[in-house]
Structure formats: structure tokens, C-alpha cells
Specification:
YjbJ_sf, 3 helices, two-stranded antiparallel ribbon, General stress protein CsbD, 2 strands
């Protein structure tokens, strides 16, 4: 599977964003309180495999992986 997508200006952009891992570590507890159906196994991931975490959450919450990634990216701490 190709993890590279092309941007309109000819640059390449990886689907993987290490900033999301940092963001996740900041919001993890609050996010899990908001979605109590998410299990420890769903959110257990290795560095560089954050996409798998997003897929697990998407499956558990009946949403798409992209929806989950966007939500994590834009999560507002309460």
C-alpha cells in the first residue's frame, strides 16, 4: 500500500503524521472518557503505527479512519 499522496504543488506528503502521536498523548485520557467503548488494546500502538490506532478507534466507534484522525487533530481540551 502506498503511504504517500501527492499534493497539488508537486510535493509529496506522507499520510503518517508524527505530530498526531504527540497530539494523542496529550488528549488520550479525555478522548477515552468521551468514547468509553475504546479499549486499551484499541489504543496500543508502536511509534510509526499510529494509523493502526486510528483504524481501531474507527472500527470501535463506527466511523472512518479519516474522521478519527481529523477529530484527534482538532480535539479541543475541556
Amino acid at each position: 500500500m502506498d503511504n504517500i499522496k501527492h499534493k497539488g504543488d508537486g510535493q509529496l506528503e506522507s499520510k503518517y503524521d508524527s505530530g498526531l502521536e504527540d497530539r494523542w498523548s496529550t488528549i488520550r485520557e479525555e478522548y477515552r472518557r468521551h468514547y468509553p467503548s475504546i479499549t486499551d488494546k484499541d489504543v496500543d500502538f508502536r511509534t510509526g503505527e499510529f494509523d493502526l490506532l486510528a483504524q481501531n478507534i474507527a472500527r470501535r466507534t463506527n466511523r472512518s479512519r479519516d474522521q478519527v484522525l481529523e477529530e484527534i487533530k482538532n480535539w479541543q481540551m475541556q
